[in-house]
């Protein structure tokens, strides 16, 4: 077989494996690399070159930037401000959600924006008594349109911009995509609001997401944090020094209740053990009574009450976590009480047993007891790895939903804006701007090193890195020219609009069953060859491929964003085309109308 035929056979096998969907997409990409090398289409250097391509570096860095923006509560803040501005009207709220998803996608990609907004949308749908299925699919489609608002919106945009340079043309600038992306967003939002309720099913979510936005208030009410407690440090010379803990008497101070005593080393002081210097006496009661007790007993207020009305219960620096004592935990049999300090800076706010509050009392813990702990977010997050207790809710999820503009959010926004400026002005290559932004997020401690590694979708990185050599092989073997000539024979030469329509159809159809990134990597060399064969500029052709690549709207497997909403929206496989097909046809009409006006043939 000729090299062109061989490369088309490898292409067909790759697409078949993607459609078969029995192997991980990353494995298919690696097998494609190996097949290209084994058939002699590329050498070893070319087969592995995709993993070091600047496009891959830029895309990987965007995942880190996206994680930083989401984890610091910026998306939560945006969602809350959205509700405050537009109110709870169903139509206005839907328009606002779709618009927000489109804008976020332009910054943190479709997968990031859908993941960030999904819990918020489910909560909003519940509050306005609207089926989430009427909001989630239009939101995902608006996000797909929003990926065409800026260069950072999708890996596809980076790929076509890089392809334009390699074809000898000018790269697409940062906001060039918005010329066609903005009309697509407007059209998609309009169809989602007007057509969505008529064609989409009304089903309940199969994966309900908890509303953690008012988590602190609910926990405070559940643990009855009304009076709170005071931690009072014993000063040298205090009359309580040397008094056995069991005989500590505060009856002279009506309204004050002794909860417990904790030693300076963190242990409970009980029974005949004497109270010593720097021990902490925990009491509850009215503030005026406690204020009289403190100077008379030579005590110092180490911690004021934390109650349901206290804004300090959960904020950018501190938070709360509910934990359960599991069987065989070393905590079983240990004395605990509200106000007790645990670990470095975790304070027990309340204890419940069998679903009932134990009040301001000291008791021995048993398996199944639940404790409400208060402390810094770093200490709370360490509980994830603590085998002595079981966390009820993920601290990371609670913080993202309940603490808008969390710690270091200002740094994250500053780094993001700096990256956008570098990309918009073209001061440095995209890979350098993205890598610098990702590194800055780590160095400024917006995200940890491990968090940055976890944020990267390595499946996407391997997929793109493995398919770049296939794109190269299709181009260098003559397969792109072969397919392009066949396409031209069908549509005829001198008919650029028909060429665009044909390329849009091919790209969109393949993109419904194969990753849009993989689809574009396959179609780009064919599109460039077709443009060169007919004497058409590559820029309108590549911009159309970018639009068609983003139009993955007819199946849940077309993009991870579509798959994310399937369970929460209660969708079935056949539901997507009902709204997706009209949106796809409108996209095609808008692309054919707008692109040639801006990028001349």
Would you give an account of this structure?
Helix content is 56%, strand content 9%. With 601 residues, it is an alpha+beta fold. Helix 18 runs parallel beside helix 21 (516-534). The two termini are 36 Å apart.
In short:
It contains 25 helices and twelve strands.
Rounded average pLDDT: 81
Helix count, per DSSP?
Answer: 25
Gap between N and C termini:
36 Å
Principal-axis shape: elongated
Please state the oligomeric state of the protein chains shown.
single chain
Task: Tell me what portion of residues adopts beta-strand conformation.
Answer: 5-15%
Q: Which ranges are low-confidence, i.e. pLDDT below 50, for 5 or more consecutive residues?
A: none
Alpha-carbon Rg, integer:
30 Å
Helix content: 55-70%
């Amino acid at each position: 077989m000729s090299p062109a035929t061989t490369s088309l056979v490898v292409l067909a096998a790759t697409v078949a494996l993607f459609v078969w969907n029995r192997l991980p997409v990353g494995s298919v990409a690696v097998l494609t690399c190996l097949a290209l090398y084994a058939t002699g289409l590329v050498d070893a250097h070319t087969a592995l070159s995709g993993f070091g391509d600047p496009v891959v570096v830029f895309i990987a860095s965007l995942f880190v930037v996206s994680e930083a923006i989401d984890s610091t509560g910026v998306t939560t803040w945006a969602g809350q401000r959205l509700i405050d501005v537009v109110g709870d009207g169903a139509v206005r709220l839907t328009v606002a959600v779709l618009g927000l998803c489109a804008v976020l996608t332009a910054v943190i990609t479709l997968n990031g924006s859908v993941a960030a907004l999904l819990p918020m949308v489910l909560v909003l749908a519940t509050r306005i008594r609207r089926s989430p299925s009427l909001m989630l699919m239009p939101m995902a489609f608006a996000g797909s349109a929003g990926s065409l608002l800026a260069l950072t919106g999708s890996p596809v945009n980076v790929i076509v911009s890089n392809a334009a340079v390699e074809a000898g043309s000018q790269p697409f600038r940062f906001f060039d995509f918005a010329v066609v992306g903005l009309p697509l967003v407007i059209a998609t939002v309009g169809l989602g609001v007007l057509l969505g309720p008529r064609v989409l099913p009304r089903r309940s979510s199969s994966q309900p997401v908890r509303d953690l936005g008012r988590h602190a208030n609910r926990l405070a009410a559940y643990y009855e944090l009304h009076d709170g407690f005071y931690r009072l440090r014993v000063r040298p010379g205090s009359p309580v020094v040397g008094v056995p803990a069991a005989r500590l008497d505060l009856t002279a101070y009506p309204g004050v209740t002794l909860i417990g005593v904790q030693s300076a080393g963190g242990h409970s002081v009980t029974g005949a053990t004497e109270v010593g210097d720097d021990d902490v006496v925990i009491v509850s009661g009215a503030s005026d009574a406690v204020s009289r007790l403190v100077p008379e007993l030579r005590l110092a207020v180490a911690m004021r009450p934390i109650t349901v009305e206290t804004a300090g219960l959960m904020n950018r620096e501190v938070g709360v976590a509910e934990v359960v004592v599991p069987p065989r935990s070393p905590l079983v049999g240990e004395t605990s009480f509200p106000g007790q300090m645990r670990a470095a800076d975790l304070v027990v706010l309340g204890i419940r047993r069998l679903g009932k509050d134990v009040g301001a009392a000291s008791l021995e813990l048993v398996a199944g007891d639940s404790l409400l702990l208060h402390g810094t977010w770093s200490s709370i997050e360490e509980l994830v790895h603590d085998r002595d207790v079981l966390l009820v809710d993920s601290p990371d999820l609670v913080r993202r939903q309940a603490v808008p503009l969390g710690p270091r959010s200002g740094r994250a926004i500053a780094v993001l804006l700096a990256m956008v400026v570098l990309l918009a002005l073209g001061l440095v290559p995209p890979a350098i701007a993205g890598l610098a932004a990702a590194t800055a997020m780590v160095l400024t401690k917006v995200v940890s090193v491990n968090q940055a590694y976890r944020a990267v979708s390595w499946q996407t990185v391997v997929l793109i890195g493995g398919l770049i050599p296939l794109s190269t092989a299709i181009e260098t073997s003559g397969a792109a020219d072969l397919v392009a000539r066949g396409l031209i024979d069908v549509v005829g030469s001198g008919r650029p609009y028909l060429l665009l329509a044909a390329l849009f159809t091919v790209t969109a159809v393949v993109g419904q069953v194969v990753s849009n990134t993989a689809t574009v990597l396959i179609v780009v060399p064919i599109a460039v060859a077709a443009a060169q064969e007919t004497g058409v500029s590559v820029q309108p052709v590549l911009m159309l491929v970018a639009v068609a690549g983003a139009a993955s709207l007819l199946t849940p497997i077309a993009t991870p964003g579509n798959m994310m909403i399937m369970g929460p929206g209660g969708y079935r496989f056949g539901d997507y085309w009902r709204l997706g097909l009209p949106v796809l046809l409108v996209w095609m009409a808008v692309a054919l109308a707008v692109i040639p006006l801006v990028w001349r043939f």
